[in-house]
Amino acid sequence: MVSFRVALQLSFAALTLAQTQGASKLQWGPCNETEVPSDVPVDCSVLMVPLDYTEPDSDEKLQLDLVRVPAPIKPSKGSILFNFGGPGSNGRDTIGTKTLAEELLALTGRQFDLITFDPRGTPGSKIPIQCFETEVDAWSYYLHRVPAMASDVELGKQWAYATKLADACFRTHNKTGSLISSAFVARDMMQIVDALGEDGMLRYWGFSYGTTLGATTAAMFPDKVEQMILDGVQNPHEYYHAQADFEEWTDADKEFSAIFTGCVEAGEKCELTKGNNKTAAELEQTIWDLLETVKYRPIALKTFILDYNNVKSLLVQALYDNSLWPLLARVLNAILTEQYDLVNDIYEALMPTTDIDIFKESQQPQVISAIHCSDNMVRSKTFDDFAPAIERLYNISKIIGDGVIFLNSACAQWKIEPKERYTGDFNVKTKSPVLFIGNTFDGLTPLVSAKNVSSTFEGSALLTVDGYGVSYLFLSLRDPLYRGFAGY
């Protein structure tokens, strides 16, 4: 059997040196280290692209800021573009992470330049989304982005606060908010491809939402796809056309249960099983009981309140990466045995306890809503119209179904319409076959999505990885603790 690493190396090794079609329009030079932190050598460039692709006669431009990890082996075979998810994640402050950059270079044969940028609407872009104008409004939004089952009255509040978000974004970003769609970002990427002056063909690797962006780009420019990997696949059909990303949470409960199965199999090495003979199902039920307890009787720690939101955030974070499972078992055991000083110390290590910039802290989830909701075509006039989606999410996943209600409530009420939205299907025949990658136990971008999307891309291949968590490399991109449930 060919290993995952070898399969990817072979995928890129098949490419020949890109034939230069013209001089590069990009001038690469040193990066601003404040804007582009990096553990590896990188260089930067800028590219001016149309601000609005629907107005070809307009002179308005948007500056794209690019960062490149140069190929160690010269001459370079060409460039590969990357998107690390979101929607709305910055690229420039991610690709230079040492472990990530070194792994990507190794997997691509160290013969390709690795390029990314901060897409439209993201905090690092020149048209960033920031819908709130006062700290009070930003704090109100930040504090109310919690799981819908955090209290018995939370569900209705979610709809109301999502209304406020939709109104605020419409008020502050009615123009720029219409220019951040995935279709426009796809056009931006093709502008980058042309500016590179290589062979005019796209080489791309996308993770999580980056797979939806990749699928969109491939559908819009099928003849320009030279090499594409979609890793940790989101279903773009639902992303654009459903009330919620229902399929995305298909395996969340299965992976959550695997945490406790693995704990029992580990025996005394797992702190949750020390001193008891509980089965995996009994251990899992203990944690569901704990969530119900702290929902109504939160526990006061030195620095934190241990409530439903804080406990569930930790549980959901563990779905991203099974290397977190031992820490999760330690924290849960400490809670159950009332070692609250230890619990507080662990939470302090994982979450900021100093003053935070609330505009910066609350910006990322706003960007996710702005991009996803503009792309999505489904609206609901009333809460009752949206209610069936809530029930369906609850039925699909107990662990994460209530965590995405806020995002989907915002999309249901979104008021900004994009200047261009991709409205086609994904029955695509690309110039070269697309490679899809999925994990067998992925609670957030399930294998079924990789299978479903791959089935509509003619000639594509599906690489299945026997493992837990979100994609192969996406795991290293997450913060130590996933605060909130905006998805992706």
From TrEMBL:
Xref: Pfam families: Abhydrolase_1, Abhydrolase_4
Keyword set, alphabetical order: Hydrolase, Signal
AB hydrolase-1 domain residues: 81-308
InterPro entries: AB_hydrolase_1 (IPR000073), AB_hydrolase_fold (IPR029058), Pept_S33_TAP-like_C (IPR013595), Serine_prot/Carboxylest_S33 (IPR051601)
Name by which UniProt lists this protein: AB hydrolase-1 domain-containing protein
Peptidase S33 tripeptidyl aminopeptidase-like C-terminal domain residues: 407-469
SUPFAM superfamilies listed in its UniProt record: alpha/beta-Hydrolases
Gene3D superfamilies per record: alpha/beta hydrolase
Listed GO MF terms: hydrolase activity
Signal peptide stretch: 1-18
Family: Belongs to the peptidase S33 family.
Species name: Daldinia eschscholtzii
